[in-house]
């Protein structure tokens, strides 16, 4: 059943990720946006925790990922880093100067950068500075306008070739792995075979070297009716369970069932009598 959940596993490094890839063992990646979600992902044995800019939409309620500020991302990276004992942590960034800030101030170990051939020179600058970079090709949400919305990429032979060329370009620029998002499974499997670095799939089928999901989505931590991409599998019903708990709390407060005696702190009868006496005349 793979790795058991543990709190005392060894720190995951780039070397660990390379070894998993060499052995053909799927690499597990999950987003986390704050201390509790990172604590959960780390405790459950995720190899990589990604502080993706999906943060903007699922944690900060923004319209799209372009709204989130560097300072906001840094705050969340620091809280994730505090909870992460073993997983390799990665955050989203776009340029060398900010990549350095994310490593130094955000306390992450690597950065993720969306884009293929056009981003290769930037990726090269960052990897040359010694910062590990996770590439991201196929559907790149930051470029949704240029791509005509959230569209599956690589559905034609030419489109698939563009995905492969982008993946090869970011590999050549020094990425240690690359996310393939929303690409037909067969195309992603062929691209994976052509690369020497691992591919991390999201909506790209089981032929990738690893998988990533947005934690809020896979936990089912959202109200009914929200749009979910086809590739998301809901492994839990956190929203439903949380709602039940908050409603039970509301009801118990309203009908004075909570707090009960066991939720209160004791005082000796003698001290209480003394206090009651002292306030009589007030
Ligand atoms: O921002 C993000 O969370 C991501 C993953 C979904 C890959 O880019």
From TrEMBL:
Gene3D superfamilies: Phosphoenolpyruvate-binding domains. It comes from the Eukaryota. SUPFAM superfamilies: Phosphoenolpyruvate/pyruvate domain (SSF51621). Its EC number is 2.1.2.11. It catalyses: (6R)-5,10-methylene-5,6,7,8-tetrahydrofolate + 3-methyl-2-oxobutanoate + H2O = 2-dehydropantoate + (6S)-5,6,7,8-tetrahydrofolate. It is an enzyme of class 2 (transferase). Pathway: Cofactor biosynthesis; (R)-pantothenate biosynthesis; (R)-pantoate from 3-methyl-2-oxobutanoate: step 1/2. One of its GO terms (biological process) is pantothenate biosynthetic process. One of its GO terms (cellular component) is mitochondrion. GO terms for molecular function: 3-methyl-2-oxobutanoate hydroxymethyltransferase activity; magnesium ion binding. Keywords: Pantothenate biosynthesis, Transferase. Catalyzes the reversible reaction in which hydroxymethyl group from 5,10-methylenetetrahydrofolate is transferred onto alpha-ketoisovalerate to form ketopantoate. Belongs to the PanB family. PANTHER family: 3-METHYL-2-OXOBUTANOATE HYDROXYMETHYLTRANSFERASE. This is 3-methyl-2-oxobutanoate hydroxymethyltransferase. It comes from Sarocladium strictum.
């Amino acid at each position: 059943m793979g790795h058991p959940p543990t709190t005392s596993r060894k720190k995951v490094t780039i070397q660990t990720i390379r070894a998993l890839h060499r052995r053909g063992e799927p690499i597990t990646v999950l987003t986390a946006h704050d201390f509790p979600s990172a604590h959960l992902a780390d405790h459950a044995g995720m190899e990589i925790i990604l502080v993706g800019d999906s943060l903007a939409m699922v944690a900060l309620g923004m319209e799209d990922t372009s709204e989130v500020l560097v300072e906001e991302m840094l705050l969340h990276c620091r809280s994730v880093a505090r909870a992460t004992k073993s997983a390799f942590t990665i955050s989203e960034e776009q340029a060398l100067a900010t990549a350095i800030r994310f490593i130094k101030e955000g306390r992450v170990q690597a950065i993720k950068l969306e884009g293929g051939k056009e981003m290769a020179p930037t990726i090269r600058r960052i990897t040359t500075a010694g910062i590990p970079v996770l590439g991201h090709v196929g559907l790149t949400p930051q470029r949704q306008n240029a791509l005509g919305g959230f569209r599956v990429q690589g559905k034609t032979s030419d489109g698939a070739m563009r995905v492969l060329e982008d993946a090869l370009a970011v590999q050549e620029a020094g990425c240690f792995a690359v996310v393939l998002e929303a690409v037909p499974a067969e195309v992603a499997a062929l691209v994976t075979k052509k690369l020497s670095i691992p591919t991390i799939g999201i909506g790209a089928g089981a032929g990738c070297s690893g998988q990533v999901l947005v934690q809020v989505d896979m936990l089912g931590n959202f109200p009914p009716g929200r749009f979910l991409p086809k590739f998301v599998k809901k492994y839990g019903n956190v929203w439903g369970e949380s709602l039940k708990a908050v409603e039970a709390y509301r009801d118990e407060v309203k009908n004075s069932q909570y707090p009960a005696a066991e939720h209160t702190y004791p005082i000796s009868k003698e001290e209480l009598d003394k206090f009651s006496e002292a306030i009589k005349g007030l």
